[in-house]
Automatic annotation (TrEMBL):
Pfam families: YjbR (PF04237). SUPFAM superfamilies: YjbR-like. It comes from Streptomyces siamensis. Keywords: DNA-binding. InterPro entries: YjbR (IPR007351), YjbR-like_sf (IPR038056), YjbR/MT2646/Rv2570-like (IPR058532). This is MmcQ/YjbR family DNA-binding protein. GO terms for molecular function: DNA binding. It comes from the Bacteria. The keyword DNA-binding applies.
Amino acid sequence: MTPQELRAFCLSFNATVEDFPFNPQTSVFKVLGKLFALTNLDAAPLTVNLKCDPEDAVRLRGEHPGLVVPGYHMNKRHWNTVTADGALPDRLVRELIEDSYDLVVAGLPRAERLRLDRA
């Protein structure tokens, strides 16, 4: 997955914006103000921090050692850092991004979730 593909995929979700609250290099993708992906698109290797169900997070780390690791500078129980430079199948990286988005949306208040459904 290229940095441009990663950025485009993250922005393809409903009500998603890209923000730079930390520095000009760190892209933060948010849905209704809530973070679901964080990356430096210029980094090599390309990695992305993604929210993950705690049980799935541990399983993924075991299945993909070195490529899926506890979230860098994040709550290690709920976040993974995923290498997105082609070492993992792009399909898996897209699924993990979508799962992160879905987890964040599930935690939004009901009125906001309903507003997302009416796009």
